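The material for today's practical consists of a large collection of protein records. A record pairs a protein's sequence with a compact description of its fold. Instead of coordinates, the fold is spelled out as a row of discrete tokens. We will come back to this pairing of sequence and fold again and again. Here is such a record, shown just as it appears in the course material.
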Amino acid sequence: MGTERSRLLILGALVLVLSVVLYRTWTDATAGAPAPVVAASAKALPPGRAGGPATPAAAAPSTPDVHLRALDDQRPQPAATDRNLFRFRTKAAPPAPVRVAPPVIPRPVPTAPPGPPPPPPIPLRFIGIVEAPQRARLAALIDTTGRPYHGAEGDVIAGQYRIVKIGVESIEMVYLDGRGRQTIRLNGS
């Protein structure tokens, strides 16, 4: 078992050394190192074969021409302009305010003077209908003190009110002078 373990250790060390060598070779090739120029002539190797220049682009790059004497020559001077980044101008006057006419408020229309207040409600409760053989219908009423009244259409009740119409569930009454017509329902209100 010990020999097997030592073999695995040696194998791991070899794999490690091989990976380091491959890594360094690969990084040197891709780091932009210039490729070696082969000094073989184009006639010696056919185009497309390893080591021979297949196209003119594959030839060694030439250095650009740098004219060092041109750096010492006179340069053109900038033209005189009236542009100055640090000069301030006066602010333009704001536009004149637009005058808006005030809204037209309609004048209130004079109303007629208020009339006399309405008469107070009739203080009687309609409690039922009495059918008499000699007369058509009688309305049974009571006042706030509990005093009973009865009357037919057109009769005067309590000396102040007149019965105008007797219906099935309500009666209509007015004051003697004809103002303040009111309907009183059978439930007493």
